[in-house]
Amino acid sequence: MERIVLLGGGPAGIAAAKMLGREKPDWDITMIRPERASMIYCAIPYVVEGLLPPDKVCKSDSLVTDSGVRLVIDEATRVDFTSREVHTANQGSFPYDRLLIATGARPLLPPLKGLEGARKVFPVKTEDDLLAILKAITEKTRKAVVVGAGNIGIEMAQAFARRNLETVLIEMAPHVLPALIDADMAAPVEARLREIGIDLRTGLGLSSLEKDDQGIVRFLVLSDGSSIALNEGEGRSDLIVVSAGVRPNVEIFEGSRLHIGRTGIVVDSTMATNIPGVWAAGDCCEYRSFIDGEVAGGKLATNAVPMAKTAARNMMGQTWHYQGFLNGAATVVAPIRIGGTGFTEELCRRKGIDVITGRGETTTRFPIMPDATKVTVKLVFGRDDGRLLGGQVLGGEAVAERVDLLTMAIKASSTIEDLMNFDYSSQPWQTFFPAANAVVLAAEEAWRCKASDSEARDTA
Ligand SMILES: Cc1cc2nc3c(=O)[nH]c(=O)nc-3n(C[C@H](O)[C@H](O)[C@H](O)COP(=O)(O)OP(=O)(O)OC[C@H]3O[C@@H](n4cnc5c(N)ncnc54)[C@H](O)[C@@H]3O)c2cc1C
After folding, report:
1. ∠ CA(66), CA(72), CA(76), 5° rounding?
2. Domain range 121-242, CATH architecture
3. Residue 272, beta-bridge partner list
4. How far is residue 59's CA from residue 56's CA, in Å, rounded to a whole number?
5. Nearest CA owner, ligand 1 atom 50
6. Which residues contact 347 (CB under 8 A, 6 or more apart)?
7. pLDDT per residue over 254-269, tens digit each?
8. pTM > 0.90: yes or no
9. Which fold, 3-106+246-315?
């Protein structure tokens, strides 16, 4: 009987456990994870806001055990790749024939002056982080500072604002959501964040923390020398949340034969590592962009799950290949839904890719229908071959669905002309009039741009 060990109980570990358990009921499959419960991380901000009770974001273990997988609550401390054994902190060792490493990533706390020993500075990931944040918010809390305005930072800042805390959101990049959208698309999002009372400071990093001898943070000093005062007054309980990136959980493999790159465990397209019988999937891995094959950021659950399914299929002897990160993702600054996929125009410029862009605007429903709101689509095409490289969407409804459509279009190597010819559906409650579609309008604008380029070249 094959002995399988799955290290980690996040989305990657669970996806692999479900597939292996279902398709190989006679295999001996063990999942090892340290935490009491697997978490629905994406919903943590909505618990902080008070919309959901904390237990709602704990997944049921039956997700794993119903597939016949044995669940061990423990932490792996070492893997002996020669004897094929996983050693744990408390329950001894677990031999394996095939191992999947899905140890994920944890929030990065930058090495800032004054951070060590500072109280009420929280990362956002685990159940403990969530409970600590909830406990830190008392009737003496006035202010919350969020460092990093990616998806998590944006959602946490809104959660604090909804709890009537004075909320400051700091972002080092020139605009919010820098990995997802360009500055022009970020502008209405920033306006909305300010409108709901968030003190947004972009283009500024956190330089240091000034704390008293009890570790209570008194000032956050920013990169322009300005500062944010915290905990002013007797017994105040202000808090700081840092959501400024993640690092892979690979420390237990340091010094071993396992090949680890700058952003995680190196795997091939079958998710196999350099060690026979060992696969890795999810946030603990380093992987490449679907678009240009370069190593890329992509620590998302929506990448972790297909990576894990690819690994599980290959562990069962099938041949499957993971095609790379597109990084389709979405967030909300109510009432604006925001999404993006592929490369932004700004990323293309940093990579030296010459692009043509186009924007299209319609409404979410027929404009004559109740509650129709604006939808904006921005498309980014390679200037040389006219292929779609990325897309961004803002709108009141169906944003993630449009992002997914654009992801498929990138995967299908669609060009400007393909998207101009895109066949869409139309219905008064669900789309704009049949006369137009925001994706088609954006492609048409890009096409006009391309046409005027060639005209200029012809007359030159
Ligand atoms: C607040 C928040 C919101 C998010 N929102 C979204 C979203 O909207 N959409 C999206 O796609 N992604 C989102 N993400 C990212 C997403 O949660 C991660 O990409 C995803 O969890 C990665 O899955 P994973 O299984 O690879 O790793 P993880 O979920 O990190 O799981 C790793 C597992 O390995 C375990 N582990 C680590 N070390 C050991 C060890 N030594 N021994 C045994 N087990 C170990 C961990 O305890 C954990 O169980 C969000 C993340 C956060 C924190």
Report:
1. 140
2. 3-Layer(bba) Sandwich (3.50)
3. 279
4. 8
5. 42
6. 390
7. 999 999 999 999 999 9
8. yes
9. FAD/NAD(P)-binding domain (3.50.50)
